[in-house]
Structure formats: structure tokens, C-alpha cells
Amino acid sequence: MTGLRGLFASLAAAPAPGGAAPAMTRRADGHGVSVGLLGYGAMRYPTVDGSHANVNRGGSKAPIDLEQVQREIDACIRLGVNYFDTSPVYCRGESEKVLGDCLAKHPREKWLVATKLSNFNAKLQSFEASRKMYEESFRLLRTDRIDYYLLHAIGGGGKDAMKVFNARFIDNGMLDFLVKERAAGRIRNLGFSFHGSEAVFRHALSLHGRVHWDFVQIQLNYVDWRHAREVNPRNVNAETLYGLLAERDIPVVVMEPLLGGRLAKLNGAAQRKLTPLAPGATPANWAFRFAGTHPGVLTVLSGMQYLEHIEENAATFSPLKPLGEREFVALERAARAILSDDSIPCTACDYCMPCPYGLDIPAIHTCWNQALAEDRLPDDPSDPDYAVNRRKFLIDYERSVPKLRRAERCTGCGRCSPHCPQSIDIPASLRKVDALVEKLRRNGRA
Fold first, then answer.
1. C-alpha 390 chain-centroid distance
2. What is the rounded CA–CA span in Å between residue 196 and residue 182?
């Protein structure tokens, strides 16, 4: 990856003039456009009531906190973030419009926008319907140019993954159409995001000579680097994906650098692998540095819902302090410690939603994972802290998951599981959570 290494090195952050905050490390895409190493993911906007922006509310729209989103976008641009990623399906179809309205208050040269052809539903896979989705993105984003356009989440569909890929992008002529749109200048960079079948990933790369992929978005973090298949047998190790892209000099956009938030709070065993090397570093700082250290990475996306997260993550990349060999070794040991726990590999992507029976699946999983990460999952009555942890878990569960949306209401229909990029057996994971909750309630009555 000699070409990209040299180009990226030339864009390393320079000292800021006049004692100002250090500038963010920047890298260049294939057109020489400078991109901030931290990117903003517009998949999980903050909401007025603290609920999930992607969850079905009986047909109602998500109560997005528009003023807070505007403050976040303003802070991003002030701190050097200029890559903003969205999709027609994020936040129940509202993400593009909200992002477009917020970005429009800034000069066009200050921001780069990425969106996707999210034609998952068979009814949207005709050329006419797919093109309509594509054209609508321009209107909602209030722009005449999409800087980065992606085929969204190729590789899904299980044993039919190749058939699904062809139906969504090849047989309907959409990929050929998008190549022409790029030549016309309406798209600056054309790429795809990936979840699932390695065969589909390799097939897409085989089209590189004809299509010329300008970038590819993959899930990359220090657990998925070498252990993705241990988390989910259907996943592909990020080291493999990154290597295949590096061979072709294709820049990488990183998604899930925190593995859905799981790497923002570590269990005690994992944290002990890292603390001696950098006592003041947060778990998120470690994860972002891991992603950014790889020279083929163009930008690292984060779904930041709080200004504090934006400021902390921007500081990590302003400038980036690349990891050394000892730190890579420590992160590999931390990854093994993380895999030894009983967490649910949910990234809160909300692709399983809406549940036909109203369950808030991501919130249920998050409650379990947070308790586990904080070493307070109340699974052993002989533990001296059992009573305290039992009470805290039940209170957290009841506060974060409304009564009619809890795991006990799962019928086991299984409609959610085929949509999960991590291939979680969701009914089984919900039964696990519900069994613990019921056990804790019984213990309290005893």
C-alpha cells in the first residue's frame, strides 16, 4: 500500500498556529480531498426522550432532538470532522433530512457527505425504485453532489447472499447507472459497505477492474481484527478484509470501532491488559487509536450522541498518536479477555427492529452487556455484592426498557434474527436475559 502510505503521511496533522487546539490528523481520498480521521455516523441521533431513534413507535416518527444534533454538527466541523455518514433507512427515514438541514448551515467546502443505496426490501430493488431512492437522497441532503456513495451492507442474505447482491445492484442495472453518475460528477467516490458473506466481498472486489471502487466500509476494531469468527462464525476477520483492500490500494472507512459500544467499557480482565501502558487512557481512546493507526484507513466513523464524546474522540485524533508494537500486543490480549466473557455480540445497529411484538431488542441487550462490562452481573448469590448488584440490575432494566417492551414478551418468532449482521440468535439471547430477570425477581420474593 505504498501509494496510500505516502499520501497519508503527507497529510499528518501539523502544529496548530498561535497556541490553538492541535489540528486533527487528516488523510486523502483517491481524489486528493483531505478527510478528518474522525467521521460522524448519523445512525443514532439523540432523541428528546432518550429513546432509540430507530425503534418503531406505532408508525410515529422518531422524536429527534434537532437542536442537539445541530450543536453536534457545529462542534464536529469546529473540531475538524468533515465526513458525515448517513442512509435513507437510518432513524426511520429521517436521518438524511436532519443531516442535510444541519450541514446546510455551513459552507459546502467544510463538509463531505456519504449516503447509501439501502434497497433491502425486494419492493425497492427495481431500477425505478432504486433510482428514486438515490435521487431522493440529493433532495433530502440539500446537495447536488454526494461525496461518497455506497452499496449498503453487501453480503447479507445468508446462503442466498450472492443472489441478493445481484438482485439489489447488478440485475437491475443500478451499479452500471451509479458508475455513469460518478463519471458525470454527481457522485465523487463510489464504494460499498460490508456485512456477511466473504464470497460476496471477494466477488465485489473482482469487479474492481471494471467498476473501480474508490473506498470500502468495513467493521474494524481490535476484537474483530483476528476474532470476528469467534464472535460470529459468519463474520470475516477485519485483518483479512483490510489486507484484501490494501492489496488493491482501496481506502478503508471504518465502522463499529467500538463494536457497538462494547469496547467503551471493558471487563476487569481486559482493562488490566491496557492500564499499565497508558494509565490515563479511556477504553474508547484505545479503540480509536487502533482503528486510526492502520495507514489504509481514510476515516473512522463514530455515532456520537453527546458533545463530550465528540470532544474526546476528536482529541484522540488531534493529532493521532499511532500505536506501537507493545500496545498492539496488549490489545490482542484484551480482545481475548473480552471474548472470555458472556456478553451478547450486539452492536445496537437496530437492523432487527422493529420487533412485531414491540420489544426493544437493542436496549435489552445493552442492559445485559453494560452490567457484564462493569463486572456487576448478579449471577452468583454467594457473591458479597450480589444483593447490591441484583437491585441495580433490576432498576436499570426497568428504567431502560419499558414494561411492554421487555424480553418476557418475546414469542420466539425469529423474524429478527435474519436481519442481524452479527448473526445473533436473538430469541435465545432474549430468553437468557429474561431468565436472569425472573431469577432475580424470585430471589427478592424469597
1. 31
2. 26
CA gap 431, 151 in Å, rounded:
34
Q: Specify the 3-state DSSP secondary structure of 10.
A: coil
Q: What CA dihedral angle connects 333, 370, 359 and 340, to 10 degrees?
A: 30
What tens digit of pLDDT does each residue of 143-193 get? 999 999 999 999 998 899 999 999 999 999 999 999 999 999 999 999 999
Alpha carbons 204 and 135: distance in angstroms, whole number: 24
Rounded Cα distance between 309 and 302, Å, is 9
Of 11-20, 120-129, 145-154, 248-257, the range with the lowest mean pLDDT is 11-20
Q: DSSP per residue over 257-310, as a string?
A: TTTTTTTTS--HHHHHHHTTT-TT--HHHHHHHHHHHSTTEEEEEE---SHHHH
CA dist., res. 263 & res. 288, Å (int): 10
Q: How far apart are CA 14 and CA 301, in angstroms?
A: 22
- Given a contact cutoff of 8 angstroms between Cβ atoms, the answer to whether 337 and 414 are in contact is no
Count Cβ neighbours within 10 Å for each residue of 80-100 and write b for 16 or more, e otherwise: bbbbbbbbbbbbbbbbbbbbb
pLDDT in tens, 309-359: 999 999 999 999 999 999 999 999 999 988 877 778 887 888 898 899 899
Residue (of 9, 2, 85) closest to 293 by Cα position: 9
Measure the CA–CA gap between 87 and 177, rounded to whole angstroms.
Answer: 19
Query: What is the sign of the dihedral through the CA atoms of 161, 167, 173 and 177?
Result: negative
Residue 152's φ and ψ, nearest 5 degrees, are -85, 120
The torsion angles phi and psi of 215, rounded to 5 degrees, stand at: -165, 165
Give yes or no for a contact between 88 and 79, defined as CB atoms under 8 angstroms apart.
Answer: no
Phi and psi at residue 191, in whole multiples of 5°?
-155, -160
The answer to whether residues 408 and 437 touch, using CB atoms and an 8 Å cutoff, is yes
Place of cell 438541514: 101
Give the residues across from 154 on adjacent strands. 194
402 contacts: CB under 8 Å, gap ≥ 6: 360
SS3 252: strand
Whole-number Å distance between alpha carbons of 4 and 29: 9
